[in-house]
Amino acid sequence: MLQIGGGLRPLGAALNTRTFARLSLGFEMPKKAGATNKDKSQNKEPERSLPCFGPVAVDPKGCVTIAIHAKPGSKQNAVTDLTTEAVNVAIAAPPSEGEANAELCRYLSKVLELRKSDVVLDKGGKSREKLVKILASTTPEEILEKLQKQAGIK
Q: How many angstroms separate the CA atoms of 78 and 6, rounded?
């Protein structure tokens, strides 16, 4: 018995005969002629590991990305700490209407000696955890070195 719409009905009445036959006999619908199973294990390309330098990494498209933990509303802009997870950056702009995000990109472009248009916020527009993408052709080692210099870490 199956309960449908408030009343109990026999199982055959709730399902059409094809569905009932498929359920009771274990029959499955045939696959379409052009359908393929797109599983990652069947991918013929070997997975290549992308280099990671703590919070600075390279995405699959080849762009350098930086994981940022932003602290908006500070007195001045500064790279306060470098951890394995993120670069802690104090931002002297309020976290409203994207002001802190714009200031973060401006500050990072100054620290990394890049054009402002080469530093783009990729993820985390409304979060303290952000991902910044560097569009200029540079290496993660150079980026990490400049951030360490700014943070006062040798």
A: 64
User: Per-residue confidence at 67, pLDDT binned at 50, 70, 90?
Assistant: very high
Tokens at residue 115, please? 């054009």
Query: pTM score, two decimals?
Result: 0.65
Q: Which DSSP letter does residue 84 get?
A: S
- What six digits make up the tokens of 137? 């052709």
Q: Buried b vs exposed e over 118-137: b needs ≥16 C-beta within 10 Å? A: bbebeebeeeeebbbbbeee
Instruction: Give residue 154's pLDDT band: very low, low, confident or very high (50, 70, 90).
Output: low
CA 20 to chain CA centroid, nearest Å = 43
> DSSP assignment, residue 14?
H
Residue type, 144: L
